[in-house]
Amino acid sequence: MLNHAPRPLQFLNARLVCPASGRDEIGSLLIDNGVIAEVGSDVRPAARAEQVDCRGHVLAPGLIDLGAFVGEPGAEHRETLATASRAAAAGGVTTIVARPDTTPPVDAPEIVDYLTRRARDTASVRIHTLAALTKGLEGREMTEVGLLLEAGAVAFSDGPRSVASARVMRRAMTYARDFDALICHHVEDAELAAGGAMNEGELASRLGLPGRPCAAEALVLERDVRLVALTGARYHANLVTCADSVAIVAGAKRRGLPVTCGVSAAHLTLNENDVGEYRTFFKLAPPLRREDDRRALVEALADGVIDVVCSGHDPQDVETKRRPFAEADDGAIGVETMLSAGLRLVHAGDVSLRRLLHAMSTRPAELLGLPGGALKVGAPADLALIDLDAPFVLDAAALKSKSKNTPFDQARLQGRVLRTVVAGHTVYPYA
């Protein structure tokens, strides 16, 4: 990232949308020395600043993507910090929170330090790191929570793996509580989901594919909620995908437990029928569920039961996707399309723009203790200028990610990012 102070930058005639304060008005915003210096309807043009006429388009806090796979170290053929950050910038994402399932995994302070230095040298957006919850992501022995926090980790997760042992999870929660650290957990019983290629149900049977039941998700989530009640730890379910999970999280929140959850933009806007004739770009983990589950997720987002919308960014190379459906690897890219896909819900009237942006920016910042997510004086100048109405057909080949495995290839979308700013520097369009 660039470190020198950029020239002051002012956005004029913008629709200022700030989920943190509830602001939604036409006005201006001035950036000076990498932070927001002035914002509101009464801000006058500053002669010394570069000026951008927004023509009524939305100016919002930059998005924070919680839990994206960025490739480095060990999987640079799938993605790198540089390519992931370029894709993020094109999608209005100003902060990536990277998964720990790299090679080697992020289970030691020196690996956190390496990623921090590597991101500083090669990334154009902010990169923060999820540290491994257990050593080697093996679910047997917890990592050094305090040392990893000191090194710069923002939360703890075993990435796409679930900790099977309730004893290990309880111990990890107890230590995390003492450090006020957030645990981000993949909620799926590996044994119950083993061998499954898509959502278990009638469609899987008709396609002749083994299924992954919703119960695999609900069982682990229910266990974890009980452990939260026992320990008092802050807990975030990375990806919930079904109505049963929504009900469990809603119940935990009614009891006042520090439980939150996230959902991917793909699970909010697609369902198992999109698999169609064995289309492997729709093979995700967790899998796309039934339409009634998708609707339950959308309603839970609108109601505030679901806290975070993320990309579920999981790049795969062509060879691992160009296989029979049951043999293809799980995963899809999503950091560049997260906002445009989510705007489908706004245009359909299912979710308000402010609520969507809250889940993509403000709430992740709150959960992780990051300073972004708001349009306020003194906040980091991490911003996205968005044309909500711009229609386009997605061309996977034009995406900035190194891999191109998107389920939205040739999809008709509405809403594009016009400009992305990180610490006052314009990172998209690229210089």
Could you characterize what this model shows?
With 431 residues, the chain is of the alpha/beta class. It has two domains: 9-59 and 381-428, Urease, subunit C, domain 1 (Roll); 69-368, TIM Barrel. Helices cover 31% and strands 24% of the residues. It contains 13 helices and 18 strands. The strands form four sheets. Strands 1, 2, 3, 4, 5, 16, 17 and 18 form an eight-stranded mixed β-sheet that branches. The mean pLDDT is 97.
Which features would summarize this protein structure in a list?
431 residues, alpha/beta, Urease, subunit C, domain 1, TIM Barrel, 2 domains, eight-stranded mixed beta sheet, four-stranded parallel beta sheet, globular, Metal-dep_hydrolase_composite
* Rg over CA atoms: 21 Å
Q: N-to-C terminal Cα separation, in Å?
A: 13 Å
CATH topology of the largest domain: TIM Barrel
CATH class bucket of the largest domain: Alpha Beta
The parts where pLDDT drops under 50 for at least 5 residues are none
The tally of domains stands at 2
Rough outline:
globular
- Report strand %: 15-25%
Share in helix: 25-40%
**CATH superfamily assignment of the largest domain?**
Metal-dependent hydrolases
Mean pLDDT: 97
Give the class from helix and strand content and strand pairing. alpha/beta
Write the layout of secondary structure elements.
Elements: E1 9-18, E2 23-32, E3 35-40, E4 50-53, E5 58-61, E6 63-68, H1 81-90, E7 93-98, H2 109-122, E8 126-132, H3 145-151, E9 155-157, H4 166-178, E10 182-185, H5 190-193, E11 198-199, H6 202-207, E12 211-212, H7 214-231, E13 234-237, H8 243-254, E14 259-264, H9 265-269, H10 291-303, E15 308-310, H11 318-321, H12 338-347, H13 353-368, E16 383-393, E17 412-422, E18 425-428
Helix pairs in contact: 2-3, 4-7, 7-8
